[in-house]
Amino acid sequence: MTPVEVKLHQVSSVLELIYEDGTNFDLPAEYLRVFSPSAEVQGHSLDEAVLQHGKMMVKIANLKPQGHYAIRIEFSDGHNSGVFSWQYLYKLGKNQAAKWAEYLEKLEKAGKSREPQFIAVGR
Fold first, then answer.
1. Which of 67, 87, 83 is nearest to 17 (CA)?
2. What is d(CA 107, CA 84) in angstroms, rounded to the nearest whole number?
3. Is there a contact between 113 and 57 (Cβ–Cβ < 8 Å)?
4. Could you give all domains of the chain from N- to C-terminal order, each with its CATH number?
5. Overall average pLDDT of the 63-88 stretch
6. Helix (H) or strand (E) holding 16
7. Residue ranges of the alpha helices (H) in 1-123?
8. Residue 104 vs residues 5, 30, 76, 96, 99: alpha-carbon distances, Å
9. Residue 44: which pLDDT band, with cuts at 50, 70 and 90?
10. In the Cβ-directed half-sphere of 103, how many Cα atoms lie within 13 Å?
11. What is the model's pTM?
């Protein structure tokens, strides 16, 4: 499903997708970042997927069209290798609640947090 309208809300860093049938999804930057389709996040198999954490404050820095089939999302943490097909974004929207709950459960089991971790640098 290809959206008829794509809106990036800069302040909230939410990607809004609107479809011809009236369906719309509001996909927060953090959600998109932790479910990036890039090999860096997903790996090349299910066993290689890397649990993303500390992404609560990430923002969408830029959107770049990839032909008529996808967009590349550039995030404020420098991640920019995920090409989000329209089909993949639709699936993320449709399954948002379940995928987010699953993600939070994985974070908890791994002892990780959504909060960014900063390293103090000596003077």
1. 87
2. 23
3. no
4. 5-110 (3.30.2020.30)
5. 95
6. strand 14-18
7. 29-34, 39-42, 86-94, 96-110
8. 29, 12, 21, 12, 9
9. confident
10. 24
11. 0.92
- Mean pLDDT score of the chain: 92
Distance, in Å, from the CA atom of 41 to the CA atom of 52, rounded to the nearest integer, reads 7
Which residues, in sequence order, are CB contacts of 115 under 8 Å at separation 6+?
54, 56
* CA atoms of 21 and 69, how far apart (whole Å): 19
pLDDT digits (tens, 9 = 90+) for 96-111: 999 999 999 999 999 9
pLDDT of residue 46: 73
Q: How far, in Å, CA of 40 to CA of 26, rounded?
A: 24
Task: Look up residue 47 and give its DSSP letter.
Answer: G
Write the CA distances from 74 to 18, 56, 82, 83, 114, integer angstroms.
Answer: 20, 16, 8, 10, 19
**Of 95, 90, 48, 97, residue with least CA distance to 70:** 90
Answer yes or no: are the C-beta atoms of 57 and 68 closer than 8 Å. Answer: no
Written as one letter, the residue type at 80 is N
* Contact status, residue 75 vs residue 82, Cβ threshold 8 Å: no
